[in-house]
Specification:
mainly alpha, 0% strand, elongated
Length: 97
């Protein structure tokens, strides 16, 4: 995992700004443990990953809410689900000729 953290550090070499946060000792110890156990190089890498996950979770939540508020266009019965699976199979499996 350590090499993955180093790879991600190189991929995300965008201009950055500094933000200071204050943590109780117990949370600081937890962050330090997660950094070493998960292969992150620094606490900053770990915190950036948590923020990205939170952003992505918010994005997904908004998509789900949009879907829940959208107009129902048909029933999602077994035939409909199978047609979706068939479409996915066609795209994923190589076509035999």
């Amino acid at each position: 995992m350590h090499s993955l953290a180093k790879f991600c550090q190189k991929v995300y070499s965008f201009p950055m700004t500094t933000m200071n946060i204050s943590l109780p000792d117990a949370l600081k110890e937890y962050v330090d443990q997660r950094v070493s156990a998960s292969g992150y190089g620094t606490a900053s890498e770990y915190v950036r990953e948590l923020i990205r996950r939170d952003r992505d979770r918010g994005y997904l939540r908004n998509l789900l809410l949009e879907g829940a508020e959208s107009v129902v266009t048909g029933e999602a019965d077994a035939d409909y689900i199978e047609s979706l699976r068939g479409g996915i199979r066609q795209r994923l499996l190589p076509q035999s000729k």
